[in-house]
Amino acid sequence: MPDNHPHHESLISGITEQMKHLLDNSDHAIYIYLDDRHKVCNKKYAALLGFKSPEAWAKIGDPLNETVVDKSKKNLVTAYKNAMENGKGSSVKVTWKKKSGAKVNSNVILVPIMYNGHVMALHFVSK
Fold first, then answer.
1. Among 24, 66, 72, CA closest to 49
2. pLDDT attached to residue 32
3. Topology of the domain comprising 7-126
4. What SS3 state is found at 27?
5. pLDDT value at residue 10
6. Does the pLDDT at position 1 exceed 60?
7. Are strands 90-97 and 38-41 parallel, antiparallel or unpaired?
8. What would the mean pLDDT of 59-84 be, rounded to a whole number?
9. In which band, very low, low, confident or very high, does the pLDDT at 6 lie, cut at 50, 70 and 90?
10. Residues 35, 8: contact at Cβ < 8 Å?
11. What strand order describes the sheet that includes 118-126?
């Protein structure tokens, strides 16, 4: 599938560099989501879902359907829409699907952040 937003790669690279200290040092599993193709996570989040590295997780094409159990999708999507459309942060319960198929219950704090005029969703995940 062609990338209709080639500048999004530079946005993710830039936010990753800007947030490097937080991604590397937070006690939380963290991911930053621009769109399905353009996202970044820290090692703790990748490990939580059974990925060998943040880069391996970033390669998945449909994170909602590949890593979130059906009963949690609506909560996460609603929180995301509130962040993107209304600038509203929230805390939601999400059950994740690990690569192994096992489930992980968590609490997700989701807030909107801006980088170079683009809104992204910053997620803090805790078990």
1. 66
2. 98
3. Beta-Lactamase (3.30.450)
4. coil
5. 87
6. no
7. unpaired
8. 97
9. low
10. yes
11. 38-41, 29-35, 118-126, 103-115, 90-97
Alpha-carbon gap, residue 29 to 42, rounded angstroms: 6
Half-sphere exposure of residue 18: CA atoms within 13 angstroms, side-chain side? 11
Q: Do the beta carbons of residue 38 and residue 45 sit within 8 Å? A: no
Locus of tokens 């805790």: 126
Residue 61: alpha-carbon gap to chain centroid = 13
Q: How far apart are CA 84 and CA 127, in angstroms?
A: 24
- Say what the alpha-carbon torsion angle 59, 118, 77, 67 is, to the nearest 10 degrees: 10
| Contact indicator for 67, 89 with CB cutoff of 8 Å | no
Quickly state the pLDDT bin for 2 (edges 50, 70, 90).
Answer: very low
d(CA 23, CA 4) in angstroms, rounded, equals 27
d(CA 46, CA 71): 21
pTM of the model: 0.92
Structural domain spans, the chain: 7-126
CA angle 33, 127, 75 (to 5 degrees): 50
